[in-house]
Write a structure and sequence with these properties.
By secondary structure, this protein is of the alpha/beta class. It folds into 3 domains: 160 residues, Molybdenum Cofactor Biosythetic Enzyme, Chain A (3-Layer(aba) Sandwich), CATH 3.40.980.10; 89 residues, Molybdopterin biosynthesis moeA protein, domain 3 (Beta Complex), CATH 2.170.190; 77 residues, Beta-clip, CATH 2.40.340.10. It contains 8 helices and 28 strands. The strands form 8 sheets. The protein has a 6-stranded mixed beta sheet with strand order 7-4-6-5-9-8, with no helix packed on it. A hairpin with a 2-residue loop joins strand 8 and strand 9. Helix 3 runs parallel beside helix 6 and helix 4 packs across helix 5. The longest helix is centred in the last third of the chain and has 19 residues. It is elongated. Bound molecules: adenosine monophosphate (AMP) and magnesium ion (MG).
Length: 422
Amino acid sequence: MAQLSDDCFAQGGPLMRVDEARALLADQVVAVTGRETVALTEALGRILAEDVVSAVDIPPAPNSAVDGYAVYHADLDPEAETRLPIAGRITAGQQDLPAAPRGKAVRIFTGARMPAGEDGGPDTVMMQEDCTVEGDTVVIRPGIKKGANARKAGEDVTRGSTVLHAGQRLRPQDVGQAAAVGRQELLVSTRLRVALFSTGDELREPGTELGAGAIYDSNRYTIHALLTGLGCAVDDLGILPDRLDAVQAALADAEGRHDLIVTSGGVSVGEEDHVKTAVEALGKLHLWRLAVKPGRPIALGQVGPVPFVGLPGNPVAVVVTFLTVVRPLILRLMGGRDTPPHTFRVRAGFDHKKKKDRREWVRARLVDDASGALTAEKFPREGAGILSSLVAADGLVELPEDLTRLEAGAMVDFLPFSEVAQ
Ligand code: AMP
Ligand code: MG
């Protein structure tokens, strides 16, 4: 298994732009997972660890794209109807094909092989809806193009071509593509084994009595879902108290069995924030102060040789920092290619002032405006602790560093949650 270089999360500047942070991760982080072979039905969402090369042409032989009649285009009258005798019939999967001489039509069904004949055989298929059958003959309307409705061998995939690439995350259509070239199994990266903790004396497990001064632990469940969505094998290690010895012992214990340790809370500057001190004692720690809003410092480091991520405590900051920094980090640790999520241009339905030189993400939902275009509407409350704002949102409007004032009606980049958190 590969290992990160010693102190790979070191960074110099006091305030880091998002692009710098991503570039640093791209530069320093290597895949630490192994490889395993999985059945196609287990492959969804996994990161492919091989190039998949097709051993076959798809389709393997010329065939019909419709139910209809295979004809020689040269037999058709371009100006008037053509009447042709029906010479035979071919269904999908049929092995022995009838002869298809010039001057005749062959009844054919979708996916059935095109018959052989003179000059390479029939080259065009007339859809049955555009034909009239009269006894043993078919009457064909004029106007069809040569080659219409006839699929060529290899027109989808040619033998020897690479249909899927190492490092890509497998979507449903990718799994289907592997099957289409005849693969039963795929080589993928092993799941990243992630140890997950929350920290905070105020946290209680959902389903238990709340008591004075307590809140339910939501971050651990949000992060668990985000990690699972990325294909990680999450080891839920519960809530840690705000005590240095307990945090340090738990982190030291987790190190041996995991590829990554993730915590939330306890990384600000308060004296009850013990995560930083614990990680420093066990390895290396760097606080990345990202030039973003919402977001607090995110702690990155190593517990022994194992990479460590200390997320903020505020639920909205957790999600935003996860999506911007942790998601690309995890994909790299699992050997994934760096594919930044797509944002989409939509109209802003709100005015907004922001500080220069930091990137800001505004929680928004999409609504259809009068013209049918999409407008992003801002959630009225902005606090980093307001989890319900994320629940109401469809995604984040991403405002660039140099912008200071947004006026309603301007076009903005919108990052749908569906792009990054599934
Ligand atoms: P901290 O960074 O530990 O100072 O936490 C910042 C804020 O986030 C505090 O209001 C915490 O109560 C809250 N918080 C921390 N951890 C969690 C959690 N796991 N679930 C919900 N809220 C949390
Ligand atoms: Mg705390």
